[in-house]
């Protein structure tokens, strides 16, 4: 059995009186591209920092690749982390960054790094401070991947990029995953990007995990039910209510089928990834999801 790339048990992180992450329990298989989705302040950056070993839990447990994050040099070498501001050094050239990466990382693949820099058209003599946002992101991605890690962690890597640069970054990311056979955890506000490149999903809101799992399974097992008012008041066991909306004549529900069997209820229809994510986010904030309002008679 493969070791999970990330495993947590009631993982909690507090900063003084503020709880940034509350009792998160996750088990993510290796070999996945994981999309971490949620609003600002949901706890995404905290979870990624815990996974990278940059901070320690207040309580609970976390294991990355079967070990405590940042336990030793070998564990550090197995994880590549790119922070939200795609950190590069403005006064160093592209070539300087590769030299530094080679000196600091025992598993550094210099041929890979220099080939990728050439393929994406970066001038090795150009200082990083003069690169565009997309070029900085590509440089940071190349450095992280050239470590030959088993896990790459990205905190909002495309948030500040224009659509073309974002598309190029995500395309390169998918190429790296195929070429290097690695796992990726990628936080993003952009559900379309997550749907395009990810096969596993974690939805965080109000510091808690709202739902997590394989994207295909989640979308196949979340449904919209529509029926006359009063006909959907009772649901079978294993059908969890996520959100409800009522008019005088009609009831609309979003439900999660956890039975392991196809949902056999009249008027059931699967919902897309974006509708599903927004429903969980609105539920966490105590709001009525707009996807429900759109179905009103």
Automatic annotation (TrEMBL):
One of its GO terms (molecular function) is ATP binding. It comes from the Bacteria. Residues 6-231 form the ABC transporter domain. Keywords: ATP-binding, Nucleotide-binding, Transport. CDD domains: ABC_DR_subfamily_A. Pfam families: ABC_tran. InterPro entries: AAA+_ATPase, ABC_transporter-like_ATP-bd, P-loop_NTPase. This is ABC transporter ATP-binding protein.
